[in-house]
Amino acid sequence: MSRYIKKMSFPITLVIMLVAALFTFRGEAQQKRTQPYGPGQRPALKPMVSRPVAAAVSAPLRDIKASPDIDLATLEAFERRVVNNLNSDLDLPGANQSNVPSFDAAIAGKPRLNGPASPNSVTPPAIGSFEGIGDADNANVGLGLVNPPDTNADVSFNQIVETVNSSFRVYNKAGVPLTPVIKQSQLFAALGGQCAQTDPGDPIVLYDRMADRWQVSQFNFVSNAAPPFHQCFAVSKTNDATGEWYLYDFVTPSGNFPDYPKVGVWSDAYYMTSREFVPNP
User: What pTM did the predictor assign?
Assistant: First the structure.
C-alpha cells in the first residue's frame, strides 16, 4: 500500500496504491480496489486518493505537562504487537548460503570472495552520546512495557527527536531534554477521534532538510482485525519540534491492516509504505 502527503499544502491529500507494500501519491482519484487479495495474488496498480477525515493544530509541545510516573512494580508487562505474528503467513525463500560469507568483508578488512582486501573503516568515532528514552518510559507514561520497542530518531541542525514505540521526546544536540516524554496521543489531542485516544505504536519520526520541518506519525485503530485503520500524521509548523504541529487523521481506504509503516522524504511529498494484512476477525 502506498500513501502520499503533498508538502507545504494544507489540507493534504492521501493517495494509496495497493502494491504489496508500496504507497504512491498521484494528483487525481482513480479506480478503487474493494476486494482483499488472496495468497499469491498481486494487487492491481491502481492508486486511490483520499483526504484526511480530520485536521487540527497541536498545542506547543514545550507546554505539554509530563505524565505522572507509574510504579513499575505494580505494572503488568503486556505485549501490544501481536499483530506482527501475522508474519507467520509469509513463505519467504531462504538465502543461498553457499555463496554467502560468514563475515562482513567491508568491515573486517578481509579479502572479498572475488577481489582484493577491503580497506579499513573510515567512519569517525562518535563525538558524543547520551541516554535516550526506553521501554521504561513507555511504562512510566501508562503505556505498558512493549516488545519490540520500535526505536527510531532523527536529527536536525539543532535538535534530536526520538521515538520508542508509543512515546517520544525532543532533545537539543547536547542531549538536554526540551520536552517531557510525550505520548503520541498527547501530540494528537487537538485532533480528537481515534488518533487522540490510543497509542498502538509503529511510530516514525523524520526531519525534512528541504522544508526544515519535522514529521511524526503512527498508525491507530480500535481493532487490528477490522477496519477502519487510521494513519495519524503530524508536521511541525516550523523547524522547532517543541512548537506547534499540523495534525492529520487519514483512514486507509483498502480495508486491509497497514502494518510496518515507513515514510520517506522527497522534494514534492512524503511517501509511505506498509505491509498489508487482510483482517482476520
Answer: 0.71
